[in-house]
Amino acid sequence: MNESPLTTEALQERLSGRPTKELTLAIAREAMTDAAVLDILLFFIYEGGDPLRWRSAWVLEKVSEQQPSLLAAEHSRIVALAIRADIPDGFRRLLLSILHNLPDAQELDVEFFNFLLNTMLDLKSPPGVQSLAMKLAHRMSCMHDELHEEFICIVRNMELDYYSAGVRSVVRHCMRKK
Question: Once rounded to an integer, what is the mean pLDDT over residues 47-76?
Fold first, then answer.
Protein backbone atom coordinates (compact mmCIF):
# COMPACT_ATOMS: atom_id res chain seq x y z
CA MET A 1 0.00 0.00 0.00
CA ASN A 2 1.07 3.56 -0.66
CA GLU A 3 1.77 5.97 2.17
CA SER A 4 -1.29 7.93 3.24
CA PRO A 5 -2.15 10.01 6.28
CA LEU A 6 -5.31 7.90 6.51
CA THR A 7 -4.71 4.52 8.12
CA THR A 8 -6.71 1.36 7.58
CA GLU A 9 -8.09 1.68 11.10
CA ALA A 10 -9.08 5.32 10.58
CA LEU A 11 -10.92 4.52 7.36
CA GLN A 12 -12.59 1.54 8.99
CA GLU A 13 -13.73 3.82 11.81
CA ARG A 14 -15.18 6.33 9.34
CA LEU A 15 -17.07 3.56 7.56
CA SER A 16 -18.35 2.01 10.79
CA GLY A 17 -20.84 4.78 11.49
CA ARG A 18 -24.14 5.33 9.78
CA PRO A 19 -23.43 5.49 6.05
CA THR A 20 -24.56 8.72 4.45
CA LYS A 21 -24.34 9.87 0.87
CA GLU A 22 -22.13 12.77 1.92
CA LEU A 23 -19.65 10.49 3.71
CA THR A 24 -19.64 8.04 0.82
CA LEU A 25 -18.95 10.78 -1.72
CA ALA A 26 -16.26 12.33 0.48
CA ILE A 27 -14.40 9.04 0.81
CA ALA A 28 -14.84 8.39 -2.93
CA ARG A 29 -13.19 11.76 -3.67
CA GLU A 30 -10.32 10.82 -1.38
CA ALA A 31 -9.96 7.44 -3.09
CA MET A 32 -9.79 9.14 -6.49
CA THR A 33 -6.86 11.27 -5.38
CA ASP A 34 -5.07 8.93 -2.98
CA ALA A 35 -4.15 5.43 -4.19
CA ALA A 36 -3.66 4.27 -0.60
CA VAL A 37 -7.30 5.00 0.24
CA LEU A 38 -8.37 3.12 -2.89
CA ASP A 39 -6.16 0.17 -1.88
CA ILE A 40 -7.70 0.07 1.60
CA LEU A 41 -11.25 0.12 0.19
CA LEU A 42 -10.37 -2.74 -2.17
CA PHE A 43 -8.88 -4.68 0.74
CA PHE A 44 -12.13 -4.17 2.65
CA ILE A 45 -14.35 -5.55 -0.14
CA TYR A 46 -12.17 -8.63 -0.54
CA GLU A 47 -11.26 -9.29 3.09
CA GLY A 48 -13.58 -7.21 5.27
CA GLY A 49 -16.63 -8.42 7.09
CA ASP A 50 -20.15 -7.09 6.90
CA PRO A 51 -21.11 -4.25 6.91
CA LEU A 52 -17.61 -2.89 6.15
CA ARG A 53 -17.33 -4.54 2.75
CA TRP A 54 -20.81 -3.31 1.75
CA ARG A 55 -19.97 0.26 2.67
CA SER A 56 -16.62 0.03 0.92
CA ALA A 57 -18.34 -1.32 -2.19
CA TRP A 58 -20.77 1.61 -2.09
CA VAL A 59 -17.81 4.01 -2.07
CA LEU A 60 -16.12 2.08 -4.90
CA GLU A 61 -19.33 2.20 -6.91
CA LYS A 62 -19.12 6.02 -6.73
CA VAL A 63 -15.46 5.87 -7.76
CA SER A 64 -16.37 3.64 -10.72
CA GLU A 65 -19.02 6.12 -11.84
CA GLN A 66 -16.57 9.02 -11.93
CA GLN A 67 -13.19 7.42 -12.69
CA PRO A 68 -13.69 3.83 -13.87
CA SER A 69 -10.08 3.60 -15.03
CA LEU A 70 -8.98 3.56 -11.38
CA LEU A 71 -10.67 0.18 -10.90
CA ALA A 72 -10.07 -1.35 -14.34
CA ALA A 73 -7.14 -3.44 -13.09
CA GLU A 74 -9.46 -5.00 -10.47
CA HIS A 75 -11.98 -6.24 -13.05
CA SER A 76 -11.15 -9.95 -12.80
CA ARG A 77 -10.94 -9.90 -8.99
CA ILE A 78 -14.31 -8.15 -8.72
CA VAL A 79 -15.81 -10.68 -11.16
CA ALA A 80 -14.44 -13.55 -9.06
CA LEU A 81 -16.02 -12.01 -5.96
CA ALA A 82 -19.35 -11.27 -7.66
CA ILE A 83 -19.88 -14.84 -8.87
CA ARG A 84 -19.26 -16.46 -5.50
CA ALA A 85 -22.32 -18.32 -4.27
CA ASP A 86 -22.00 -17.02 -0.70
CA ILE A 87 -22.33 -13.34 -1.64
CA PRO A 88 -25.54 -11.61 -0.42
CA ASP A 89 -27.69 -10.15 -3.20
CA GLY A 90 -27.24 -6.54 -2.09
CA PHE A 91 -23.46 -6.83 -2.10
CA ARG A 92 -23.60 -8.62 -5.46
CA ARG A 93 -25.68 -5.75 -6.87
CA LEU A 94 -23.00 -3.27 -5.81
CA LEU A 95 -20.26 -5.40 -7.39
CA LEU A 96 -22.21 -5.77 -10.65
CA SER A 97 -22.83 -2.03 -10.67
CA ILE A 98 -19.08 -1.42 -10.34
CA LEU A 99 -18.43 -3.88 -13.19
CA HIS A 100 -21.09 -2.18 -15.30
CA ASN A 101 -19.17 1.09 -14.96
CA LEU A 102 -15.77 -0.42 -15.82
CA PRO A 103 -14.34 -0.79 -19.31
CA ASP A 104 -14.98 -4.18 -20.87
CA ALA A 105 -12.42 -6.89 -20.29
CA GLN A 106 -10.34 -7.73 -23.34
CA GLU A 107 -10.96 -11.46 -23.15
CA LEU A 108 -14.28 -13.21 -22.89
CA ASP A 109 -14.85 -14.75 -19.48
CA VAL A 110 -17.19 -17.65 -20.29
CA GLU A 111 -17.81 -18.48 -16.62
CA PHE A 112 -18.85 -14.88 -15.92
CA PHE A 113 -21.05 -14.75 -19.04
CA ASN A 114 -22.83 -17.97 -17.99
CA PHE A 115 -23.23 -16.60 -14.46
CA LEU A 116 -24.83 -13.45 -15.89
CA LEU A 117 -27.24 -15.44 -18.06
CA ASN A 118 -28.27 -17.64 -15.13
CA THR A 119 -28.67 -14.64 -12.83
CA MET A 120 -30.76 -12.60 -15.25
CA LEU A 121 -33.16 -15.54 -15.65
CA ASP A 122 -33.29 -16.48 -11.95
CA LEU A 123 -36.66 -15.40 -10.60
CA LYS A 124 -35.24 -15.62 -7.07
CA SER A 125 -32.68 -12.89 -7.84
CA PRO A 126 -33.77 -9.35 -6.98
CA PRO A 127 -34.76 -7.23 -10.00
CA GLY A 128 -31.75 -4.93 -9.56
CA VAL A 129 -29.36 -7.88 -9.74
CA GLN A 130 -31.25 -9.39 -12.70
CA SER A 131 -31.19 -6.07 -14.57
CA LEU A 132 -27.48 -5.49 -14.06
CA ALA A 133 -26.71 -9.08 -15.03
CA MET A 134 -28.72 -8.62 -18.23
CA LYS A 135 -27.02 -5.32 -19.08
CA LEU A 136 -23.58 -6.84 -18.57
CA ALA A 137 -24.45 -10.00 -20.53
CA HIS A 138 -25.84 -7.89 -23.35
CA ARG A 139 -22.72 -5.75 -23.48
CA MET A 140 -20.47 -8.84 -23.47
CA SER A 141 -22.57 -10.48 -26.19
CA CYS A 142 -22.31 -7.43 -28.42
CA MET A 143 -18.56 -8.01 -28.70
CA HIS A 144 -19.08 -11.56 -30.07
CA ASP A 145 -21.67 -12.25 -32.79
CA GLU A 146 -22.22 -15.88 -31.83
CA LEU A 147 -22.84 -14.89 -28.21
CA HIS A 148 -25.15 -12.11 -29.25
CA GLU A 149 -27.34 -14.53 -31.19
CA GLU A 150 -27.50 -16.79 -28.13
CA PHE A 151 -28.27 -13.86 -25.83
CA ILE A 152 -31.08 -12.59 -28.07
CA CYS A 153 -32.56 -16.08 -28.35
CA ILE A 154 -32.57 -16.44 -24.55
CA VAL A 155 -34.13 -13.02 -24.03
CA ARG A 156 -36.81 -13.65 -26.66
CA ASN A 157 -37.83 -16.83 -24.86
CA MET A 158 -38.15 -15.24 -21.41
CA GLU A 159 -41.65 -15.36 -19.93
CA LEU A 160 -41.73 -11.63 -19.20
CA ASP A 161 -44.93 -11.81 -17.14
CA TYR A 162 -42.86 -13.31 -14.32
CA TYR A 163 -40.33 -10.46 -14.24
CA SER A 164 -40.51 -6.98 -12.75
CA ALA A 165 -41.24 -3.86 -14.78
CA GLY A 166 -37.57 -2.86 -14.44
CA VAL A 167 -36.33 -6.14 -15.88
CA ARG A 168 -38.88 -5.93 -18.72
CA SER A 169 -37.59 -2.43 -19.49
CA VAL A 170 -34.02 -3.72 -19.72
CA VAL A 171 -35.24 -6.53 -22.03
CA ARG A 172 -36.83 -3.96 -24.37
CA HIS A 173 -33.66 -1.88 -24.35
CA CYS A 174 -31.47 -4.91 -25.11
CA MET A 175 -33.72 -6.01 -27.97
CA ARG A 176 -33.49 -2.57 -29.62
CA LYS A 177 -29.75 -2.12 -29.35
CA LYS A 178 -26.65 -3.95 -30.47
Answer: 97
Q: What is d(CA 86, CA 7) in angstroms, rounded to the nearest whole number?
A: 29
Evaluate whether 34 touches 70 at the Cβ level (below 8 Å). no
In angstroms, rounded to a whole number, what is the distance separating the alpha carbons of residues 112 and 149?
17
3-state secondary structure the chain: CCCCCCCHHHHHHHHHCCCCHHHHHHHHHHHHHCHHHHHHHHHHHHHCCCCHHHHHHHHHHHHHHHCHHHCHHHHHHHHHHHCCCCCCHHHHHHHHHHHHHCCCCCCCCHHHHHHHHHHHHCCCCCHHHHHHHHHHHHHHHHCCHHHHHHHHHHHHCCCHHHCCHHHHHHHHHHHHCC
Q: By the 8 A CB rule, do 18 and 55 touch?
A: no
Amino acid found at 92: R
Amino acid identity of residue 60, one-letter, is L
Per the confidence metrics, is the pTM higher than 0.85?
A: yes
For residue 166, give the amino acid letter.
G
CB-CB contact of 79 with 108 (8 Å) = no
State the first-to-last Cα distance of the chain, in angstroms, to the nearest integer. Answer: 41
List phi, psi (to 5°) of 77.
-70, -35
User: Is a pLDDT exceeding 90 seen at residue 14?
Assistant: yes
